[in-house]
Design brief:
The structure holds 2 protein chains of 2 kinds. By secondary structure, chain A is an all-alpha fold. Helices cover 76% and strands 0% of the residues of chain A. Chain A folds into 2 domains: 90 residues, Orthogonal Bundle (Rna Polymerase Sigma Factor, Chain: A); 78 residues, Orthogonal Bundle (Arc Repressor Mutant, subunit A), CATH 1.10.10. In chain A, helix 3 crosses helix 6. Chain A is globular and about 50 Å long. Chain B is α+β, with helices and mostly antiparallel strands. Chain B folds into 3 domains: 49 residues, no CATH class; 45 residues; 135 residues, Phosphorylase Kinase, domain 1, CATH 3.30.200.100. Chain B contains 7 helices and 7 strands, in the order H-H-H-H-H-E-H-E-E-E-E-E-E-H. In chain B, strands 1-2-3-4-7-6-5 form a 7-stranded antiparallel β-sheet, sandwiched between helices. In chain B, a hairpin with a 2-residue loop joins strand 5 and strand 6. The N and C termini of chain B lie far apart (115 Å). The relative contact order of chain B is 0.09. Classes of the chains: A mainly alpha, B alpha+beta.
Chain lengths: 171, 252
């Protein structure tokens, strides 16, 4: 048990970072991590997850995020329907972020959630393409083409070639 | 072994440092000859580096004790036991409610349905009190059975207690919630008093099984028949009354 907790504890900063990159909000990021850890801990009693623990936890967290997001999207669509107001969040990049590479970070923030996850897994966490394909439940070939699109989008956003609203609509 | 021109996957693998040494060298050479793609690959590499640098700060946020695995385990246990507790409380509440309801039902039934309670009451009020006006007495032209039949259709015959020395002396009508009731008072030569009480049953199904119950110094024997309930009430320990009860047990 303590061994499990130690492994989780060690990965905690990475999980929180990943959650933050998805939610772009500190407190909802930690809520997401908490919910994911609960899932992970309940699942763990049955069997020890195979393969990379980090990839397994990322996949739990990502699925949790996608589920929440779907729910809140439904909610905001309903809100829109009844009030005419869009519930879509106007995201302001955090000032607490490192100043280095601010342009890239700002561009990163504007990508859609899957692209952010993809780039974080591959470029930052260094997961293998196979692991990413496992998390997203798509073939490796699909991962590659989505990765290309994500990298292109990041590049274009960094260079300011595409204005933000256009891309957000594409999402 | 990588083939040229490199596939999309090879280009990404190059950027992400996932090519082996030989392939990386092949790629380096190939990119040197293809500056357009080299430029793009370099830009992507820089982006990745910037991302790593830019996001590294997020790894060093102050720890949140609520995210510690042991804390989460505790919380899950607490929640689980809270769920169990809620379920248990619910179960207890439902059980108490059910038991209380059953108890209340028993009490209501017991109150409402002490069999032939009004027969005993009527005996206490009228049978032993000579001064109460009667609706029938031995001075009337009709005999008691005729008087009774006028008020109760298809009722059982009055018990014949002559063998025990008891004769009908007076009758009295009264009313209950369910309809008319009547009491016939029997006396023997020594002035001992028994009463025969007839009333409609309480509710459709409240026909009484033949039974006996004691109420203070009195005993009530009760039964049903012909759509009515009957009781014979008299002193519990009196031998003459016991003899009359024996007479009652013979088919009427």
């Amino acid at each position: 048990m303590n061994d499990v907790d130690d492994q989780l504890r060690e990965l905690l900063p990475r999980l929180r970072r990943f959650a933050l990159s998805l939610t772009r909000d500190y407190s909802s990021a930690d809520d997401l991590v908490q919910a994911s850890l609960e899932k992970a801990l309940s699942a763990w009693t049955g069997r020890r997850p195979e393969g990379d623990l980090r990839a397994w936890l990322f996949s739990i967290l990502y699925r949790q995020f996608v589920d929440n997001h779907r729910r809140s999207r439904r909610y905001s669509r309903m809100l829109e329907l009844f009030t005419g107001a869009s519930g879509d969040d106007q995201y302001e990049p955090s000032v607490e972020r490192t100043v280095v590479a601010r342009t890239t970070l700002q561009a990163f923030e504007r990508l859609n959630a899957e692209q952010r996850a993809l780039l974080l897994w591959v470029s930052v966490e260094g997961l293998s393409y196979k692991e990413v394909a496992g998390i997203l439940e798509v073939p490796v070939g699909t991962v590659m083409s989505r990765l290309s699109r994500a990298r292109q989008a990041l590049r274009q956003l960094s260079e300011g070639e595409i204005t933000t609203p256009a891309l957000r609509i594409l999402k | 072994m990588m083939t040229l021109p490199p596939s999309e996957r090879d280009l990404h693998a190059y950027i992400d440092g996932k090519l082996d040494d030989a392939d990386r060298q092949t790629m380096d050479t190939w990119l040197a000859a293809n500056p357009e793609i080299a430029k793009q690959v370099l830009a992507w590499q820089l982006d990745a580096q910037n991302l790593r640098a830019g996001l590294s700060g997020d790894l060093h946020r102050p720890a949140n004790p609520e995210l510690d695995p042991s804390f989460i385990r505790q919380r899950m246990r607490r929640n689980r036991s809270r769920h169990f507790a809620s379920a248990a409380v619910l179960l207890i509440a439902v059980s108490i409610g059910g038991l209380a309801g059953w108890q209340a039902r028993d009490m209501t039934l017991a109150n409402a349905v002490l069999p032939m309670a009004d027969a005993v009451q009527a005996y206490r009020m009228f049978a032993v009190n000579e001064n109460v006006a009667s609706d029938w007495n031995t001075g009337k032209p009709n005999n008691v059975q005729v008087w009774l039949d006028k008020n109760f259709a298809q009722a059982n015959r009055l018990p014949d207690l002559e063998s025990a020395g008891f004769k009908p002396v007076s009758g009295r009508l009264s009313s209950t919630e369910q309809g008319a009731a009547a009491m016939v008072v029997y006396k023997d030569a020594q002035g001992r008093t028994l009463s025969f009480y007839i009333r409609p049953p309480i509710g459709q199904q409240r026909m009484l099984p033949r039974g006996t119950r004691r109420d203070g110094e009195l005993q009530a024997d009760y039964w049903s028949g012909g759509g009515y309930n009957y009781a014979m009430v008299g002193p519990a320990d009196d031998p003459a009354a016991q003899a009359a009860r024996q007479a009652l047990k013979r088919p009427i």
